[in-house]
Write a structure and sequence with these properties.
CATH superfamily of chain A: HUPs
Oligomer: homodimer
Helix content of chain A: 40-55%
Strand order of the largest sheet of chain A: 5-4-3-6-8-7
Distance between the termini of chain A: 63 Å
Order of helices and strands of chain A: EEHEHEHEHHHEHHEEHHHEEH
Chain lengths: 307, 307
């Protein structure tokens, strides 16, 4: 069997169609799909300053490489990479070293923000006393810093490396836990209009599966190995991931169908749940947007980090 | 451990809360929940003629028993049981015998309509030449006859025994296959306003799990055994059933959450997809409602049954 588009031998079988592609055709297909997502959903505008959330993983590394490739030559667009140093020994230190080299090669400014500097303690130090699930506190602190630092950098967009698998999982998690209002905040372009407290988020890898992004990162030689976070404990997401992967194996195209179903109802969800967004307050302590009087980050700072 | 509500020993653990109930408290809980569904969703109105689709299975037998118990004494409400005799040897003949006795005991009129009389061939005869999936053709013919015969009986409601598991499966099947327009036709009360071609459908067992309905049928002694259809081949539904049951085991309450998420967006779906309902035509051959020029039943009659 040869590649669907040329005579080379294929390296990958696409998941939502019975098509196999060779390395070069797969890379073309992948990049075309990212460009199409950017253009269909108007993810990038004139004069944008795109801050790209990077971790050194396959998703955000591919994203950074591609945004630089696609709009890096445009004079009106500025690109900055933003990495969060949670302070995880034997993990984040290594990926930050990789990122420094990678950004230097790409000629992209890299801004590193650490929990230690911002909150006074690294995640390793926090976890000495905090006995809850690490991802719970770390997710809150990381999202807080990404939004806050992107604003300080005067970003007009915050780009993240979420892929189709991530999105299908989030959609199903919200559906199976009856969190529909939270689903309204998903999608390839998110953010609340005319609320300057939030930097709009864009997900250019939205329509590419995890398998495709991983293949792209390795076939392009962007990285030669990767390590998963040693603290990762996402029990619920893992259940849903397994369930979706299992169904995708039996019925190829399921992940795409889930995301397409979601995109069909997303305008309805946004309309319905935007009433709630008017209720978003500013935290009395840090002034960042939040749903309560005091935001979760400030509560963690008081009850966990300072204690 | 004793029953949550009294001192008897429990017979069943509810699925969406950590509560165990004894036989008598479970039956009270079950019946109260059916009454609440009927009242919350206004499933039954004054002067209704409720035609109940019965098969002799645990769901529709419990439904028939309960509708008779709840509104059977009301002078303004008429109840008729409607059974479809597909003509499946060693299966339907037995359940029809059971139904005749059961309806006689309950003093409910039973109307039996057969494929043989209506279409000229029994399902067994049809399947001698039709080599597709039996449920595909049988589902189309059965739904056609239920709607048509309910209309002939001058029903104002057609009640079916769908339970929470059935609904959660249908919701997920539509989501995972990107059939959102079809989802808009689900819910405890369905039907298109002011379209007399459709008899509104009601599902009083909507909020009870399959486990609960099965337990109710056996604890009340409504039936002492049951048989599944020998032709059943619902590959996709079985995949989804397995997936949801697996998730429910890990995270109890998942089925309820799926249905609650769905009910939250159902008004939005109905609004969005009701545009389509205006496009519903009448079949040029039989005048029954359909989306094409000729309905699926008439196509099956021409291409499969008469051939």
């Amino acid at each position: 069997m040869s590649c669907k588009k040329c005579i080379e031998s294929p390296v990958i079988k696409l998941t939502n169609s019975p098509v196999s592609l060779c390395k070069s055709c797969f890379i073309k297909y992948f990049e075309k799909k990212v460009k199409k997502t950017i253009s269909d959903y108007k993810l990038i505008d004139k004069n944008d300053h795109i801050v790209i959330a990077v971790s050194g993983g396959k998703d955000s590394t591919s994203l950074l490489y591609l945004i630089k490739k696609i709009v890096g030559e445009r004079k009106d667009i500025k690109i900055t990479a933003l990495a969060i140093d949670e302070g995880i020994h034997n993990y984040r230190d290594e990926s930050l070293e990789f990122l420094k080299g990678f950004c230097k090669k790409l000629k992209v400014n890299l801004k590193i923000v650490s929990y230690k500097e911002e909150f006074g303690k690294s995640l390793d130090e926090i976890l000495k006393t905090y006995k809850g699930i690490p991802c719970s506190i770390c997710g809150v602190l990381r999202r807080y810093l990404l939004n806050k630092k992107a604003k300080e950098l005067k970003a007009t967009k915050l780009a993240t490396g979420h892929n189709l698998d991530d999105e299908a999982q989030s959609i199903m998690m919200n559906y199976c836990r009856n969190n529909m209002a939270i689903s309204a905040r998903l999608g390839p372009l998110t953010g609340i209009k005319k609320d300057e407290r939030f930097i709009p988020r864009i997900k250019p890898l939205y329509f590419l599966t995890e398998k495709e992004v991983t293949s792209y990162a390795f076939l392009k030689g962007l990285m030669d190995n990767f390590k998963e976070c040693p603290n990762s404990q996402q029990a619920y997401r893992n259940n849903i991931r397994e369930m979706i992967n299992d169904l995708e194996l039996k019925i190829p195209g399921t992940k795409h169908s889930i995301v397409n179903s979601f995109l069909e109802i997303l305008p309805l969800l946004k309309e319905e749940y935007s009433k709630d967004s008017k209720l978003i307050k500013s935290c009395l302590k840090c002034m960042e947007p939040c749903s309560q009087e005091i935001c979760k980050t400030c509560i963690y700072i008081e009850t966990v980090i300072k204690s």
